Amino acid sequence: MTAQLDVLTAGYADDRVASTVTLVRDSGAVIVVDPGMVADRELILAPLRDLGVDPRQVTDVIFSHHHPDHTLNAALFTEAQFHDHWAIYKDDVWTDRSADGFQISPSVQLRATPGHTAEDISTLVRTDAGLVVCTHLWWSADGPAVDPLAADQEQLERSRALLLELGPVLVVPGHGSPFVPV
């Protein structure tokens, strides 16, 4: 059994900014990755409804990093637990753990991928088509090759190389439509 992945909204970063918001369903887990800034919350909620998912059914929310453009709409998911680089948060409970290698569900795992920020994580999703990676190591398929906001561009390049070695069939970038890595 593998996970099902749907992009709820493809982000962008130009004169305005929106994050790419992704839904992953796997063995009872209903996961939203990067519920950040969008022009209207309906750009998250309407696709969820179309897929038959109520926001209260979301079990997990993953933040690739803590910039508001990737976290702003987290409160839409009142029943979820939240994951970042070093902990799981649910209601008033903060559970420390490293994200690197943490298994959210049978087909979904977190990986530390510093570069854009020192705390960046990527979400690795095993699907029927192969490995899909949700990550901010790329803003979009079109670049930029050099991240203008990177905390450490050299580390970002190392993290990109490590993810590409895993052989992903698709990359879901932080601010764009999914693309096939080359």
Describe this entry's structure for a reader.
The structure is a single chain. This protein has 182 residues and is of the alpha+beta class. The protein has one domain: Ribonuclease Z/Hydroxyacylglutathione hydrolase-like (Metallo-beta-lactamase, Chain A). 14% of the residues lie in helices and 32% in strands. The protein is built from 3 helices and 14 strands. The strands form 3 sheets. It has a 7-stranded mixed sheet with strand order 1-4-5-6-7-8-9, covered by helices on one side. A 5-stranded mixed sheet has the order 10-11-12-13-14, with no helix packed on it. The chain is globular. The model has no long low-confidence stretch (mean pLDDT 97).
- What's the CATH topology name? Metallo-beta-lactamase, Chain A
Beta-strand portion reads: 25-35%
CATH domain class = Alpha Beta
Q: What structural category arises from helix and sheet content?
A: alpha+beta
What Rg, in angstroms, do the CA atoms define?
Answer: 15 Å
Give the end-to-end Cα distance, rounded to a whole number of Å: 27 Å
Mean pLDDT: 97
Low-confidence stretches: none
Total domains: 1
Topology (SSEs and partners):
Layout: E1 4-9, E2 12-13, E3 17-18, E4 21-26, E5 29-33, H1 42-50, E6 60-62, H2 68-71, E7 81-83, E8 87-90, E9 93-96, E10 103-105, E11 108-112, E12 121-127, E13 130-134, H3 153-165, E14 170-172
Parallel strand pairs: 5-6, 6-7, 13-14
Antiparallel strand pairs: 1-4, 2-3, 4-5, 7-8, 8-9, 10-11, 11-12, 12-13
